């Protein structure tokens, strides 16, 4: 590798340096836009005691849910964990520490973490269990709570395309938390569907500039659909 | 008779105005999209990062990268935009969404809402609900007026952990359309054929009943 070339040749290299008890920020919403091969590599490495920061925790056998099986996750910071039976079991039994965080606050925590902002005030969560133990302050007659930003030892990200310099383009709603996650990792690892040469992506159309990206790898993706909903009235043969 | 889920959605749809950007929660609120009045254009915001959500896709249009906040596959309408989660919640928290419709377990006379957690029973997380109720000015909560066992969900004080404090002003149940102000519920409309007495009986928090309570049209 030379200069700004961020491409690594194996998933092992991509996740090299991940150690027990580290914090990992993951992009994705539900199973959409998740770095599925990087997650699989964490499973393969059997890294333990991880703190995961992600909107959701996948389902039992896919996405971040696969890390629950081997008890690799110590704590998760997420907004919604409803699709995962093993998750619920570990949370209820106290094996897994869960910090439920409002979705917008979670996105902002990542964004702020990546932007060097240690904390911010938000009205979200004021007067609710989320506010417990947090400083609050009034601005213009409204109440706000102080939320601290998040940084990760690693950030794992899924994008659609990248050039070798790590300039990223996301596709449709698979963008979600990925751009924020990309900014908030000490080491940001990105997997994409296609890597092109610098110059082949329009600089005006880059969603995440390469400065945030440390390692880049091309993978192939299952892209599992969580809720396959079809417009029946628009189909002609009527099958599902 | 109590309103059906569809009728609740139909009544909410009457509150839509031309040019509204609207966020619809999961469940009954989602159905509102089916009853947008003729001659009105609204754009649906899905908090995972889509403004201008369209219908479910056909088999040919199906795309794993294109989902809504309920993780269902969707399409985008002409004129839609797609963005990241921070941008999405900047819209919500910045008060740019004109109407938010969401479900709840309980609301109370102070405008508090509980919708995300039943301790020791249901702990799935708040998703974007806390951001939506804190950021929006115009919110309609849809829910059944009482539980299956006849316990009121319109209370003097919410018993479950709160999603938001003092942020709800309008509630549409299967029995009534209610406004919350000055620490009281105010009965605005009743469902067709539902008596004021029944609404009073099933409302635990203080309810102000005007002399004439119109029936809603659905």
Which SSEs are present, and which pair or pack?
The complex is a heterodimer of chains A (240) and B (218).
Chain A: H1 11-14, E1 23-26, H2 36-45, E2 50-53, H3 66-69, E3 73-78, H4 85-92, E4 97-100, H5 103-114, E5 119-122, E6 136-139, E7 142-148, E8 152-163, E9 168-169, H6 178-183, E10 185-196, E11 215-218
Parallel strand pairs in A: 1-2, 1-8, 2-3, 3-4, 8-10, 10-11
Antiparallel strand pairs in A: 5-7, 6-7, 8-9
Chain B: H1 5-13, E1 20-24, H2 28-31, E2 42-46, E3 50-53, E4 76-82, H3 85-93, E5 99-103, E6 106-108, E7 113-114, E8 117-118, E9 122-123, H4 129-135, E10 139-143, E11 154-155, E12 170-173, E13 176-181, E14 184-190, H5 196-201, E15 207-208
Parallel strand pairs in B: 1-2, 1-5, 5-10, 6-11, 10-12, 14-15
Antiparallel strand pairs in B: 2-3, 3-4, 6-7, 8-9, 12-13, 13-14
How would you describe what is shown here?
The complex is a heterodimer of chains A (240) and B (218). Chain A has 240 residues and is α/β, with parallel strands linked by helices. Chain A has a single domain (11-218), classed as Glutaconate Coenzyme A-transferase. Helices cover 18% and strands 26% of the residues of chain A. Chain A contains six helices and eleven strands. Chain A has helices at residues 11-14, 36-45, 66-69, 85-92, 103-114, 178-183; strands at 23-26, 50-53, 73-78, 97-100, 119-122, 136-139, 142-148, 152-163, 168-169, 185-196, 215-218. In chain A, the strands form two sheets. In chain A, strands 1, 2, 3, 4, 8, 9, 10 and 11 form an eight-stranded mixed beta sheet that branches. Chain A is globular, with a radius of gyration of 19 Å. The model of chain A is unreliable at 235-240 (pLDDT under 50). Chain B is of the alpha/beta class and 218 residues long. Chain B has one domain (5-208): Glutaconate Coenzyme A-transferase, CATH 3.40.1080.10. Chain B has helices at 5-13, 28-31, 85-93, 129-135, 196-201; strands spanning 20-24, 42-46, 50-53, 76-82, 99-103, 106-108, 113-114, 117-118, 122-123, 139-143, 154-155, 170-173, 176-181, 184-190, 207-208. Chain B has a ten-stranded mixed beta sheet with strand order 4-3-2-1-5-10-12-13-14-15, with helices on both faces. A three-stranded mixed beta sheet of chain B has the order 7-6-11, with no helix packed on it. In chain B, strands 8-9 form a two-stranded antiparallel ribbon. The mean pLDDT of chain B is 96. Classes of the chains: A alpha/beta (240), B alpha/beta (218). Chains A and B meet through helix 4, helix 5 and helix 6 of A and helix 3 and helix 4 of B.
